[in-house]
């Protein structure tokens, strides 16, 4: 993950003590340094104490931010006192950064309400937010209305905000590869490329015939193939997989990774059946799993919207994601179900993974043509799930986000699999069905629902259904 950079605005009101501004600068720089976050803020000589109060200050700060436009991921507004709401809003308007904004206000001490230490930032934050709303500038808030920058609470707030910044920057610049056509039977993986592009998400396409043609022209002893073979051997056990199938999988990996590198692609969605098995004789699951594990998420069945959700979860958490089917009820338990794919989940989800075949596809395509599918069970732990979907009839992108947990409940089956407990699961299933969401969802082994929902709602303007987690 790239190092993050925040623009910092320290607000001020001239009839409040200047020492509060000096303390705030020290506090903020100390915290940002501890978190390895770079800061762009006014020099103490550029304005009074390096704070922003007047129109002149706003112009100087905005000019500084514009000079670092390519580096700044978000802006932290800190109010050590009431601050000047116009100065803050004017700075953000003039800078034209269009990045997430977090507003933090210092708390007053009950023994510090005399003139010498009085802050009134509790009130000033309301005024700043009012002005940001008037200016049409979206912003995020700390969990508590006032909070000290060096508190554990604000450290959590800032880490969550930085994750939101990663999601926003990543999605607005995302480049996704679509390899092949969606399976004809799957209308559910339709999407609007134009709506994605309007959000900043670009899609590049590659025909499967090009993949097969390039792969077939690579010799078995090509150094790139041998290197990829060794890579696969170190990634997962493959006790029953013929060497010829491993070689074909390696060639697929070489071609796909070369194409992604040439086009600066962040993620991919691949036609994983049935042309793959009929015309190349293997499953591409292992290659996809390896890419997802290395934070280059890859989704099945050319599900572009699905891999965008995978990428968004990855940006929010810093961990690999996977694409899953909401696949089976878990007996009579109304709040548990089975996640499944045949399967290409990242190794992070499958500590016991093995490379084998895909029995379901094998019933019609020949199991000998499905080597490359992964089998394994996800152990107990946290999970965040999400779906991003283009609603073409309304011309909008929408999403749902929820949290739950993986369980160790017994499960006897094949493929990539997990038992998941989700509070009020039946309510969620009704929402998915009534609103026409797809049977695919993205999952991540973390709890980052608040971060993701905030990023998608506040900074993309997408309607997000938050299922049963802290708002």
Overall pLDDT, averaged?
A: 97
The order of strands across the largest sheet is 10-11-16-15-14-17
Which second-level CATH architecture of the largest domain applies? 3-Layer(aba) Sandwich
**What's the β-strand tally?**
18
- Specify the CATH homologous superfamily of the largest domain: L-fucose Isomerase, Chain A, domain 2
What is the approximate shape?
A: elongated
Number of domains: 2
CATH class identity of the largest domain: Alpha Beta
Please indicate the percent range of residues in DSSP E strands (runs of 2 or more): 15-25%
Major sheet summary line:
6 strands, antiparallel, barrel
Radius of gyration: 25 Å
Termini Cα gap: 26 Å
Poorly predicted residue ranges: none
Total helices: the number is 15
Q: What percent of the residues sit in helical stretches (DSSP H or I)?
A: 25-40%
User: Which structural class do the helices and strands define?
Assistant: alpha/beta
Overview of this protein structure:
- The chain has two domains: 5-172, Rossmann fold, CATH 3.40.50.10940; 175-467, 3-Layer(aba) Sandwich (L-fucose Isomerase, Chain A, domain 2), CATH 3.40.275.
- The mean pLDDT is 97.
- It is built from 15 helices and 18 strands.
- The protein is an alpha/beta fold.
- It is elongated and about 80 Å long.
- The chain is 39% helix and 22% strand.
- The strands form three sheets. A six-stranded antiparallel barrel has the order 10-11-16-15-14-17.
